[in-house]
Amino acid sequence: MVNVTWHEATAFAAWAGMELPTEEEWEKAARGTDGREYPWGEGWDASRCCNSVGQTAKQTKTVGSYPTGASPYGVLDMAGNVWEWCESWYDSNKSARVLRGGGWYRDDTRYYRDMHRDGDNPKFRSGTYGFRCASRSSGP
Questions:
Q1: What is the DSSP secondary-structure string of 69-119?
Q2: What are the tens digits of pLDDT across the range 50-91?
Q3: Sign of torsion, CA 50 31 21 63?
Q4: d(Cα 135, Cα 104) in Å, to the nearest integer?
Q5: Distance from C-alpha of 62 to C-alpha of 32, rounded to nearest angstrom
Q6: Which of 21, 46, 108, 133 is the most buried (most CB within 10 A)?
Q7: Could you tell me how far CA 5 lies from the centroid of its own chain?
Q8: What pLDDT, in 10s, does the model give residues 27-42?
């Protein structure tokens, strides 16, 4: 799903009985416990995510199109495809929400690194913004 505001993403997650991931949860899902640079490990590899580095991607790809780009937890599409809204605030002014992952249209590898972050007004929508849901269990 793309072209959604942070508010719409949050509403869908709540409807589904889930939440948006916090920025910390998103980053751990992408980096694992070994602090890798990209979800697949160290070093840029354009064949592991939807991107425009040295090429011209025309649009997003179906989720799971890049299985070799999976994170150490098996989470797909953590790099490229769409910027993903997170629950966390981007700044201390609380005027923007965190976006992670880098959109398919970026032509610079730094946008796809696990630690790269961006933010935007939660009322803004873009064809390059999407989201994923997180399920938090309270444990046994």
A1: G--TT----SSSS-EEEEEEESSTT---EEEES--TT--SGGGGSTT-EEE
A2: 999 988 778 899 999 999 999 999 999 999 999 999 999 999
A3: positive
A4: 26
A5: 24
A6: 21
A7: 14
A8: 999 999 999 999 999 9
What are the extents of the domains in the chain?
A: 6-121
- Look at the chain and count its residues: 140
pLDDT at 1: 82
Record the tokens describing residue 69, joined without a space.
């780009």
Amino acid letter, 11: A
Mean pLDDT, residues 7-11 taken together: 98
Q: Which CATH architecture has domain 6-121?
A: Alpha-Beta Complex (3.90)
